[in-house]
Amino acid sequence: MRSLGYMLAKLCLLREMQADADQPAPAATRRPRALPAACLSYATEVHGLWVLRGYAPVLAMPRVTCAASTTAPITALPHEAPEEPALRYGLVHQQLEVVAQLEYAVRARRGERFMTVAVRVDNVRVRVARLGFRRDDADADADGGDAHDDAMDGERHFPSRLRLWVGPRFGASYATGPSLGRSTGNPEQDVETTRTVKGAFAAAGATKLANGGVPPRIKAKMRSSARARNRSWRWEQEAEGSAGVFEGVLCDPATGTEISAWRGDNNNNNGGAGDPRNGMRRRYGGPGRAFSKMRGLVVAGDELPEEVTWRVGREAEGRTLPWRVGLKAWLTYLPNQVRSRHFETRCVEWPHEVDLPLAAVNGDER
Predict the structure, then answer these.
(1) Reported confidence tier of residue 71, pLDDT bands at 50, 70, 90
(2) pLDDT tens digits along 262-287
(3) What's the pTM value of the predicted model, to 2 decimals?
(4) ∠ Cα 102 103 109 (to 5°)
(5) N or C: which end of the chain has fewer CB within 10 A?
(6) What pLDDT does 28 receive?
(7) How far, in Å, CA of 335 to CA of 26, rounded?
(8) Burial grade of 4 (CB within 10 A; 0-12, 13-18, 19 or more)
(9) What angle do CA 71, 73, 74 make, to 5 degrees?
(10) How far does Cα 323 stand from its chain's mean position?
(11) How far apart are the first and last CA of the chain?
């Protein structure tokens, strides 16, 4: 798939160069020339899992040009295209690779008039791979070898937001739900208060009281501290119609800004948002990194253990029902080790339809 992705990336690059040569236009009025047809994907049902795989050259993904809360496009920045030739070449020769695995289970009890369809996230693996023909690519990726990487290897797009949704067809009457298993997250904040009282008698020569006693010295001190627990990735469950949604957003650990929604200080509608570029530097190293050493992201059941359930009537027992599965991914580039003003966010979505076999249920529970 990387060989095919390399050819598709070259095709997108040629289309963009031809369009710029035929109709030269200022950067502010130029339309994004994406090629969604080059973003390949497929989904299937196997061994109790729904598996969705997607491959998209970065240049084929549409660029996000407006904030999530608004519909008005922003003005293109003068540094929309990177000025450095090596950085420009490296950013266009990258490919998004996504594998999403959802585990489903059909449960029923004797005497009930419905069956329960439960879905949970088994695995979501996201990686941005470099496209090119080099003899040492396999060895460098196998051992995570930073020694074999060139100066631009760390300058990659990274996933900043993921939206995975699953559910029956639109307007289907054979399923009721969804019932979510996770509440809206409430940030935790620990407050610790310490009160200290110290007492001592006055030293010799101190002023005595009228009755001949010595006044004691008393010191009181109080200290309070607050500690909040922040995580780079914030996951939550939502419902959109009859579909259940698993959504994760990457936030800057220093400022708390959502990376995918940041558009720069000059064009940001809510100007109070902090600049995440400093916090996302050297994002592939250190103990607090949000990505693996392979420069990817893995989300497993320990991060999203909760299920989303639907209820299906017993009259559908023994049939195979159509179910919808889709994934939407946002990729963002911010400078990692080089000094550049370039930043961008791109997005791609893959909707698919899979089978849900409802096998006949015998016994009290299954």
Answers:
(1) very low
(2) 877 544 444 445 788 888 888 888 77
(3) 0.78
(4) 140
(5) N
(6) 43
(7) 25
(8) middle
(9) 130
(10) 24
(11) 39
Give me the count of residues in the chain: 366
316-351 tens-digit pLDDT: 998 999 999 999 999 999 888 888 888 889 999 999
Beta bridge partners of 355: 322
Both structure tokens of 348: 């791609």
Query: Residue 275 in 3-state DSSP?
Result: coil
How far apart are the C-alpha atoms of 174 and 156, rounded to whole Å?
44
Residue-wise pLDDT for 167-186, tens only, equals 999 888 999 989 999 888 77
> What's the CA gap between 357 and 317, in Å, rounded?
9
The pLDDT value recorded for residue 191 is: 75
In sequence order, which residues have a C-beta less than 8 Å from that of residue 189 and are 6 or more positions away?
226, 227, 228, 229
Q: Tell me, what DSSP letter sits at residue 258?
A: B
Q: Closest by alpha carbon to 130, among 160, 158, 86, 90?
A: 90
Q: In 3D, which of 128, 157, 96, 104 has the Cα closest to residue 327?
A: 96
Type of residue numbered 231 = R
Report yes or no: 58 and 94 within 8 Å, Cβ to Cβ.
yes
CB 257 within 8 A of CB 232: no
Contacts of 318 (CB under 8 A, 6+ apart): 358, 359, 360
Tally of CA atoms within 13 A in the half-sphere of 110 that contains its CB: 4
Task: List Cβ neighbours of 266 (8 Å cut-off, separation of 6 or more).
Answer: 77
| CA–CA gap between residue 111 and residue 39 (Å, rounded) | 47
Report the distance separating Cα 347 and Cα 328, nearest Å. Answer: 7
| Pair 152, 87: CB distance under 8 Å | yes
Amino acid code (one letter) for 49:
L
Strand, helix or coil at 120? Answer: strand
Q: What are the backbone angles phi and psi of residue 120, rounded to the nearest 5°?
A: -140, 160
Yes or no: say if 243 and 172 are a contact pair by the CB < 8 Å rule. no
Classify residue 286 as exposed, middle or buried by CB count within 10 Å of its CB (0-12, 13-18, 19+).
exposed
More confidently predicted of 79 and 330: 330
